[in-house]
Amino acid sequence: MEARVAEQLRGALDPFGFEVHAFKVGWYNAVLQPAFHLPYPDDTLAFLVLSTPSMFDKALKPFVNKERLKIIRDPVDQCVSHHLSCVKEKFPDQKVDIICDYEILPNRKPKFLAQTAAHVAGAAYYYQRKDVKLDPWGGKKIYGVCIHPKYGGWFAIRALLLFPDIQVPFLEQSAPTDCVSTEEKRIELLEQFNFHWQDWRYRDIIEVKERYSEEQKAYFATPPAERFRLLGLPGEAQRNTFH
User: Fold this and answer.
1) Widest CA span of the chain, in angstroms?
2) Is 231 helix (H, G, I), strand (E, B) or coil?
3) Name one Pfam family in it (predicted).
4) Vertex 188, ends 183 and 194: CA angle to 5°?
5) Distances from the Cα of 169 to the Cα of 117, 135, 186, angstroms
6) Of residues 90, 122, 115, the one with CA closest to residue 10
7) Which residues pair with 45 in a beta bridge?
8) Is 71:233 a contact under the CB 8 Å cutoff?
9) What is the DSSP string of 134-164?
10) Based on CB atoms within 10 Å of each CB, which residue in 3, 18, 26, 92 is the most buried?
11) Is the distance from CB of 58 to CB of 15 less than 8 angstroms?
C-alpha cells in the first residue's frame, strides 16, 4: 500500500519540483516530547514534502501566472497549498490530512517540527549541536539545520501528508545521508547557519547538484511584502498579504 501511494504522490508532485519521503508517525513521535507529538497511531503512514530548487520555475511561476488575481497571501505558501490540494483529490477513497510548515497551534508552537520530520523520513540529515563533540559555543544558543545529500541547503520543507486510515507496521526506516561527516565541517555548518545565514554559504557546505537560481535567490532575499513586485503581481495582492 505504501509503495502504491508513494508512486501516486511522486507522479503528481515530482514534475513540479517537489520530493516526497515516507515515514511512520511513530518514528517522529519517538524522538520528541509529548507536546509535539502528532495525534495519530504510531503505524500511521505519513509523507514529508519538500521543495527542490526547480520548484520555483516548475510550480511557482506558472501558478502565479495562472492565479495572479487570486493571490492574497504568500505566493509560495499558496502555490504549495494548491498542489497539495490537487494531490488530495487523487485519493477520493482515502482520508488525507495536510499540515503545512507555516501552520501553528493556538499556543503559537508549530504544528510539526519540520527538520525532525525530514530526518526521521530519511530526506535530509538534521545537524544539531549534539552532533559536535568539542562544542566551541559556550553559552550561545545554537540552532540546528538540515542538509540534503543532493541539494545541500538549497531546499525547503513544505508539508506533511498523513493517511490516517493506512497503517504500515512493516515499513522500514531509512537513515538520512550523513553528508557533513567531519567535526570540522559540522562546526563550520552550524557557525554559518547561526551567524552568517544571510550570505547563503551554509547551503553550499557540500558539493550540490543544483541550487537556487539568481532570480530565486533574489526573491527569497527580498522582504515578504515586497516579493509581489518581483513576480509582477498587483499592489492589491500586496496590501492583502499577511505573514
Assistant:
1) 53
2) coil
3) MMACHC
4) 125
5) 18, 38, 34
6) 90
7) 24, 163
8) yes
9) S---TT-----EEEBTTTBT--EEEEEEEEE
10) 18
11) yes
Residues 62 and 68: their CA atoms lie apart, in Å, by 10
Burial letters 191-203, b for 16+ CB under 10 A, else e: ebbbeeeeebebb
Whole-number CA gyration radius for the chain:
18
Name the residue among 120, 175, 179 with its Cα closest to residue 153. Answer: 179
